[in-house]
Each structure stands twice: as structure tokens, then as C-alpha cells.
Amino acid sequence: MAEKYKRTDGRAYDEMREIKAKAGVIKNADGSAMFSFGDSIAIAAVYGPRQLHPQHLQDPSKCLLRCTYDMLSFSVNERKKPGPSRRSTEISYVTGKALEPVLQLDAYPNTVIDVFISIIQADASTRCAGINAASIALANAGLPMSELVTAVSMGKVAGNILVDLSKDEEDYRGEKIKETTDIPVAYLPRSDKISLLQLDGRIKVAELREAIKAAKKACLKINEIQREALKKIKE
Amino acid sequence: MKQDISKIQQKKIEELISKGKRMDGRHAHEFRKIEAEINVINKAEGSARVKFGESEVLVGVKLNVGEPYTDSPDEGTLVTSAELLPMASEEFESGPPKIDAIEVARLVDRGIRESSFIDFKKLCIKEGELVWNIFIDIYPINWDGNLIDAAAFGAILALKSAYMPKLTEKDKVDFGNLSNKRLPLTENVPITITVNKIGKSFILDTTAAEEKAICSQLTFAVSKGDDKELHINALQKNGDALTEEEIFEMIDLGMRESKRFFDLFEKITEKKEKKE
Amino acid sequence: MDKMDKKEEVKGKQENKEKREKGEKDKEEKLKETEKIEEEKERKIVVPGEIVAHGFQFLPGDGTRREGPDILAMKFGLLEKNDRLVKIIPLSGAYLPRVGNTVIGRITDMNFNGWFVDILSPQEAFLPVSECFARINKADLAEVFDIGDMIVAKVKSIKSRNIDLTMRDHGLHKLSDGMIVKVNSSRVPRIIGREGSMVKIIKDETNCNITIGQNGVIWIKGNDIDDELLAKEAIEFIVEKPFIEGLTDTIKEFLVKKKEEMKREEKEKLKETEEKKKEK
After folding, report:
1. Region A97-115 average pLDDT
2. Would an 8 Å CB–CB cutoff place B144 in contact with chain A?
3. Where in chain C is the domain with CATH 2.40.50.140?
4. B59-81: per-residue pLDDT in tens?
5. HEC profile of A98-147
6. What is the pLDDT of residues C185-221, one digit of tens each?
7. C-alpha angle with apex A79: B72 to B116, nearest 5 degrees?
8. In chain C, which segments carry CATH 3.30.1370.10?
């Protein structure tokens, strides 16, 4: 039985934190954007298509999509040592997989599109913030995309399905040992497909269905915000 | 990948400088528009965002506690790092820091250390056992030259605006729980200026393109002593050889221009104090 | 007498007919002009995935695709509807070369067969010796183009691994002297203007020779460095204001104003130096 759980910041179960999005924030990049869920802030820069060295990495049939997710040392409470970790390597990989389906990579063989994501402030949902920022940045870079990719972190906390988990919800410890299930979702709103789905915790199938339904709803709102950010770009 | 400029671009920059002009319309000793904000990252104990024109850098200060170095058992420690994020420029490559990043970090560090801006003795909690460790992390977000000056300025702003976190009973840092105590800093604020030589002229605040055209560079940190006179705390020469006269001309120029940064530093950090 | 009158009558009728036809032609052209301006006003920014047209009568052009009766945007940019063709004009992004593009690039390396040129394209660009304009003694490659030189060339062919350039066409040469300005390649059409009208104004008002590479690299050559700086300023002005109408007039005004400013500044400088002399 689900307890009446109150979110620490008073949000409704299906309410996201305040979202801010801005495109074209890094002049040197071909495309760039900032995206934040509450205090979780991600910036993304896209360079490409551009030359890929060394040559043996080149793929004659298509462009290589190379994603790098990284948290800045001061983005977390206890300073993170600079450099990649196993976690950031995994997130880089799944982020790339989340973005790939919308890109027309066979249009630029033997080249590379580099997507750099930096988390400057971390308060959970960083990989989702990163995917949202990267999506805007890829569009800003003028790359052909079938649509934008949206992402939100779902969760089951104390038996309730919540949208956009914050750090304290992620860390929630109730009477039992593990009370939180963390489910990041990336969604393609036009084709109604899911390009990233991960899960950590303990959840029933019916609950997962509920979570995905709620994620889709939230993602449609995120898509609108991404579109506004692009349309408002200062040219 | 590292880019070079073409011969005609080099020639044009030199031609302009010989007439006291630059591609963006500035004079030889003019700085671009400077923007500086403190307290921009909520997870950092101290932070600053500095922009010289389009060159933007984020600097964060993080604190922790740990053992002191054996040769200074009653002093806190300072570690300064810089990472040239590939997102900031097509010329920055992924991977562990190379000499460019290391040099930026070391120059910023030396200016702060040698000026005695931080009172390291006041960072001692238990002599020989426990001291405060300060970490300064420098990240360029969009690189358009003069990273060192911007990073150094961001570093002192971040230090000045930092709050120390509370300690638990077990003398561990209670991260996220800040006290209202500031870092023990002295009046010896270090300002770092880089003076560049191109052709026969000297310029300040180089853009990325200009940095490829310069032949020599002198970076130095100055701070005011008790006698209110400027002292040089750290200095580094880069590039082609310089004559003695040129070196002192460059130092003179840099010292004159440092005044604006001392004033700006006061202005920004004073505002915050007043608010409290 | 009658014959003369008749001839005059016929002439008169013909003249009237011509006048009428010309009048109608003028009206048509004016209508087209206003329509074009109206179209520009209607241009809106679209985002990938957006439906930009509905119906099978529309044709999907650059940057769009068809999904059933809908035409969807595939790129971020300005939507342009010309008759039935729907396309997107990019506002940003990397330069994507097309065969026939005039480009300005920098020599970065060379081998026995030619020179590697950086034209800011996703694939590497190469200028084979055979595509160079003069007879080259293979040993003297560096004497023709050395590393660091800049050239105006044309894109001859685009293969999957690299791009071949050619210099065998008029107007292609090595650059000596002058100023280089780099802009985003998507802005190039705006800087050129309708049938070159925009760049012509800049050339005329600044007395500079201007070559615009489709890759966003622009070469300015004037007699005076101040003229070159003025041309650069005008180009940067255009780049910052891609949407406004009547840009050609605005640019002319801008240049005229700036030149007056420069003249005033020079007069003041002369005054100062004269006064200083007098003091002595």
C-alpha cells in the first residue's frame, strides 16, 4: 500500500521542477544549449560534422556520434576528482544511444559529430538534463534531425510514481532498505518511441507502465520548452 | 585540433598593431568588456563566472579536511587545477590535462600562494593531524583568448566569496551545510596580467586569433604590500627572447593596467558584504 | 495628307499599346516585389519535427521530409514557401560544401600530388597539382603555395573521404595581403544579397575588393586599412541582423555615417597635432 508521501519541495507527483532552457550559449561551438531541472544544470556543445582523426576510427558508411558526459569538480557536494569515471563513461554511452535514432548519420560518412555535456550543478536527473540540452544543441548546429529528443527521470518513491526526481528523493531511505526506484527515460515525441530506458530499484510491471505513461506526458511539456528555446535564439 | 593562422592574417594583425589598432576596434592596451559574477554554482563553497569579451571561464572553490603536508604541519593546503574543456574550443582535445592546462593552473596557483593571499596557518584545525584543504577548479566554457587573466581573476573572486562548510562532531565536513565564516584571507589580493608582444608593440587581453600572432608573452601576478606599493609575486615569460628593456616596459604596462582589476575586485566583493 | 495622318494614327496606337503593356509589366513587377517582401515577413523559425505544410500539393525541399500528407522540418532554420516548394534556410551550423562552391582556404600541408587545404569542411580538402592553374614543376610545390598561404578555389568534387578543389577557373588565385573575416556560412547569402546587391554597396562605399567564400571566409582588400576595417564592420553588422528588411538601405546609411565619423575623427586629430605644434 502506498503511503501518503509528501515531496520535500511540495511538488505534485506529476509536477516537474522549474525548467530553464537556452540555445546558443557557447559561441565557438556549431550548436550549444543550457538546460536545467531545478538546481541541476547541464550545458551541451556540439561540434560537427567535422574531421575525425585518427583515420582508422572513420566509418565509410556514416558519421560517428561521439558523446562525452562529464561532471565538473564543483558540481557536487563532495568535490569530484577531475577525469572520467565508470559512471560518466556509461552515461556518455547511453546518452549517445538516446540521441542517435533522430540523427541522419549516413549523410556525412567518415566524419564525427562531437557532443560534449558538462554538468555544472548536480541535483539528480543530470543525464536527463544533459540529453535535453544536447538535443537543443544538435538542432542549433543545423543538423538534420527527425525530431528533438526529450528526457525526464521518473521514480517510484515510497510506493508512489513521481516525475523528475530530486536528489533527496533519489536518496530516500524509508523503513525498508531500498525505497526508491530510479527510472531515467528518453522519449521521441513525434514517433512515440523510447530511446533511453534505465531502471534501478524494485518495481512491478504495472507500476513501470504507469511511470512510462507519466514520463511521456512530462516529455511533451519538455519538448515545448526546447522548441521555445530554439525559437528565441538571439541571431 | 590546433589551428594556425595564415600568413596574411598574421601580417594584417601586425599591420594594425603598428598603427595602434586591433581587429575588433580596440586600442593596443584596451581590455574587452569584462563581466564578473560571484556565487554562481550552489554546490561550490565559492564560485565565480568571468567573461572577457566572449572568453568565458567558470571557477569553483571546494573545501575539505585532511592531513597536512609533513613539511608544513600547521598549514592548510591549496590545489589548483584547470581543465581545457573540449566544448570551449575546437582546439581543445579530450583527455588528461596537457601543458596548456597545467600552465594555467600553476600560474594562477603561484599568484595566490606567493602573495600570501590565503592565511594558511589559520586553516589549521589540529596541528599535524587535521587541516583545511582548498581546491580551485578552473573550466573555460568558451575560449577566446586570455584564459590566464580571466581564470586568475575568477579564482580570487571565488576565494573571497566562499563560505566555509560546517564540521561534524567527528571533524568531517558536513557538505552542503555552510557556516557564515569566510576563508581566512589577507589584504594581499593578487592580480594577474599577461602582456603580449607582437611585432614591436605590446598588447593586452588577446583574443584567440591574436594569441596565434604574438611572439612573446609575460604573465605576472602583483599585489599591494604594506607600503601600498605593488610587488611582483610570480612571473613567467613565454615565447621568443626579450630584451631587458622590453621586459620592464611590459611589467610597467601590466602594473598600470592592474589598477582596474583591483578596483573591480573591491567593487564586486564589497557588494556582497554590504548585502549581509 | 491622308496617308501621313494614317501613319501617325497607327504610330500613336502602337505607342499607346506599348505604354499600356509597360504599365502592366511595372504593376506585375511591383506586385512580385511586395509578395517577396511579404514572404520574408512570413518566414518563421522552425524546429526539427514540426509540421510545416499539409497537403500533397506541397513538395519537400532542402531540410524537410514528407510523412504522409504532412511535410516536416528536419532542420532548425527559417521556413521558406515558394509556390509549392517548402524548404528550410539554415541559420547556423557547420559549412557543408557543394560542388561549384567558391571557397577560401589555408594551405596546411602538401605531398607530391598537391596541397591539403583547410576550408572548414567536415572532410579534408585537397588541391591536386593537376588542378592548379600554372604549369608546375613538381619539385617547386612550396614555391607555388606554401603552408600558411591562403587561396581562393572552387570545389570540384566531393568524395566520401575528401573533397577535391580546383583553381582552374577565372577569379581563383592565391591571396596576398588583405584582411580575412570569418562568418557562419549560413550568413553568406545575406552578405551577398539579391544578385550581389548587398556586397556591391559595401564594395562601392569602402572602395574595397571583396571575395566571399561560400564557406564563410571573406577576403577584403582595400587601399587603406581603415577602408578594410570599415568593410569588416559592415559585414559584421549584416551578420548580426539577418532578418530586417530594407537591409541594403540600412547598410548604405551605416557606411555613410561611419565614413563621416572617420573624417571628423581625422580632422580632430589633425587639429590636435597642429595645436601641439603651435604650443611648441
Report:
1. 95
2. yes
3. 102-175
4. 999 999 999 999 999 999 999 99
5. HHHHHECHHHCCCEEEEEEEEEEECCCCHHHHHHHHHHHHHHHCCCCECC
6. 999 999 998 899 999 999 999 999 999 999 999 999 9
7. 35
8. 179-264
Q: Does C176 touch chain B (CB under 8 A)?
A: yes
List phi, psi (to 5°) of A137. Answer: -65, -40
Is the Cβ–Cβ distance between B118 and B134 less than 8 Å?
yes
**Secondary structure of residue B67 in the 3-state scheme:** coil
Instruction: Flag whether residue C240 sits within 8 Å of chain B, measured between CB atoms.
Output: no
Instruction: Indicate the residue type of A202.
Output: R
Name the residue of chain C whose CA is nearest to B7's CA. Answer: C148
Quote the CA–CA distance of B165 and B62 in Å, as a whole number.
Answer: 10
Pick the CATH number of A19-234 from 3.20.20.70, 2.40.128.270, 3.40.50.720, 3.30.230.70: 3.30.230.70
Minimum distance, in Å, between the CA of residue B2 and any CA atom of chain C? 11
For B220, the 3-state DSSP assignment is: strand
- Whether the pLDDT of residue C253 is over 80: the answer is yes
Strands C64-67 vs C59-60: parallel, antiparallel or unpaired:
unpaired
pLDDT of residue A235: 47
Element (H, E) at B156: helix B147-160
A65 has which bridge partners? A113
* CA gap B39, B20 in Å, rounded: 38
ipTM value greater than 0.90 = yes
| Residues B47 and B59: beta-carbon distance below 8 Å | yes
* Whole-Å CA distances, B237 to B101, B203, B250: 16, 15, 11
The radius of gyration of chain A from alpha carbons, rounded to an integer in Å, stands at 18
Closest A-chain CA to C63: A144
User: What superfamily does domain B17-275 belong to in CATH?
Assistant: GHMP Kinase, N-terminal domain (3.30.230.70)
**What cell does A33 get?**
544549449
* CATH among 3.90.550.10, 3.30.1370.10, 3.40.50.720, 3.40.50.10780 for C179-264: 3.30.1370.10
Q: Are C94 and A233 an interchain contact pair (Cβ–Cβ within 8 Å)?
A: no
- The reported pLDDT for the residue numbered C211 is 97
Helix (H) or strand (E) holding A180: strand A180-188
Flag whether residue C149 sits within 8 Å of chain B, measured between CB atoms: yes
Query: Which pLDDT belongs to residue B251?
Result: 97
Query: Candidates 2.160.10.10, 3.30.43.10, 3.20.20.150, 2.40.50.140; correct CATH number of C102-175?
Result: 2.40.50.140
Cross-chain Cβ contact C149/B15 below 8 Å: no
Note whether B170 contacts C: Cβ–Cβ < 8 A.
Answer: no
Contact (CB<8Å) A231/C91: no
In B, residues 168-197, which contact A (CB 8 Å cutoff)?
173, 175-176
Lowest mean pLDDT, pick from A58-72, B230-244, C89-103, C261-275? C261-275
Q: Note the pLDDT of residue A233.
A: 85
Q: Does B4 touch chain C (CB under 8 A)?
A: yes
Provide the whole-model pTM: 0.91
Domain residue extents for chain B:
17-275
pLDDT confidence band for C39 (50 / 70 / 90): very low
What's chain B's average pLDDT? 94
How many angstroms separate the CA of residue A121 from the nearest CA in chain B?
6
Which CATH architecture group holds C43-90?
Beta Barrel (2.40)
Q: Which of C34, C115, C45 is nearest to C73 (CA)?
A: C45
